[in-house]
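TODO from last week: model Large ribosomal subunit protein bL35.
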Amino acid sequence: MPKQKTHSGAKKRFKVTGSGKITREHTNRRHLLEVKSSRRIRKLAVDTEIAPADVPRVKKLLGR
């Protein structure tokens, strides 16, 4: 049977931490930053963990 391929879109969007958690970047950090407060931009800069309901689907896409 052939190898399972990693989903190209998923590998660009998600990272697996050393402990096995899956993280993602926040939305709203790409453009129109002038109208957003500095506090909001700083908070959006930090990666966050994905929702528990999405973990099985994302792991499958990443081939884990």
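Done. The chain has a mean pLDDT of 96.
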